[in-house]
Amino acid sequence: MQGAQLRHQPPAPGRKPVPRGASRMVAKEPMSARLPKANFGFLKSLFWPVLLVVLGFGTYEGATRLLPYADRPITKIAVQGDLSYISQQAVQQRIAPFVASSFFTIDLAGMRTELEQMPWIAHAEVRRVWPDQVVIRLEEQLPVARWGDESLLNNQGQAFTPKELANYEHLPQLFGPQRAQQQVMQQYQVLSQMLRPLGFSIARLELRERGSWFLTTGAGSSGPGIELLLGRGNLVEKMRRFIAIYDKTLKDQITNIARIDLRYANGLAVGWREPVAPTTDKPAVAKN
After folding, report:
1. What is the pLDDT of residues 161-217, one digit of tens each?
2. Residue 71 burial by Cβ neighbours in a 10 Å radius (0-12, 13-18, 19+)
3. How would residue 287 be classed by pLDDT, with cut points 50, 70 and 90?
4. CA separation for the pair 257, 273 (Å, rounded)
């Protein structure tokens, strides 16, 4: 066998021959790169909560020390609002127990509740004004009608009970179940607007337990009061029918009409007043 022949391969063009027996040098990393880096994330996350606690504690301590110097007795009560039914003196007497407190300790919520328990006050707003004043703004009830025999109704259909009911007998009187106050008030407002052009006003409006409506007009320029039997439902439609027939046939005879029944589907029934018998004066007889 012929011996193996080793041929020397020339280096590839563009590459330097690597000397035999030589080793490649690797650059050493600096010491700072090999040491573990410090982690400050935990300290950063802890810094803000600690700062907030310190600021809160400092604020509390400062407020506690300064409060005795800033908190002053209440020296002025200003009552605002158009008051027609209650007096400033009555308001002052009502809130007298609260005024003894200081500016920061006065119970504004309790004062407001106490004021709104007065029958004639519908809404009360109470606020502080630095350094020693309390401003009260009052909104009075607006009486629109009587509710039964013991209360009044405001324009929102809410009942309230003042002491001087005898002073409001001129108001229309509304009746109905206790739960239907707002419903009766709404119907009163609608029907009043419809009757006003005819010269009628409402003296009495009643909603009975079974849902029937009864209306009595007040005496006025159009004549004496008449009773309208409206029945259940469709009150506006029935009132329009009455207005149309009134203008055509009933207007000239309204003084002789006692009641009008509108509970029919397409018409109405008229109840006439009984004629008043003329009084005859008896001749005086002279006696000896």
Report:
1. 998 888 899 999 999 999 999 999 999 999 999 999 999 999 999 999 899 999 999
2. middle
3. very low
4. 5
Would you say how long the chain is, in residues? 288
Tens digits of residue pLDDT in 228-238: 999 998 999 99
Cut 0.70: pTM above it: no
Distance, in Å, from the CA atom of 288 to the CA atom of 285, rounded to the nearest integer, reads 10
Q: Are 107 and 98 in contact (CB under 8 A)?
A: yes
Give the 3-state DSSP-derived string for the chain, with helices as H, strands as E and coil as C: CCCCCCCCCCCCCCCCCCCCCCCCCCCCCCHHHHCCCCCCHHHHHHHHHHHHHHHHHHHHHHHHHHHHHHCCECCEEEEECCCCCCCHHHHHHHHHHHHCCECCCCCHHHHHHHHHCCCCEEEEEEEEECCCEEEEEEEECCEEEEECCCEEEECCCCEECCCCHHHHCCCCEEECCHHHHHHHHHHHHHHHHHHHHHCCCEEEEEECCCCCEEEEECCECCECCCEEEEECCCHHHHHHHHHHHHHHHHHHHHHHEEEEECCCCCCCEEEECCCCCCCCCCCCCCCC
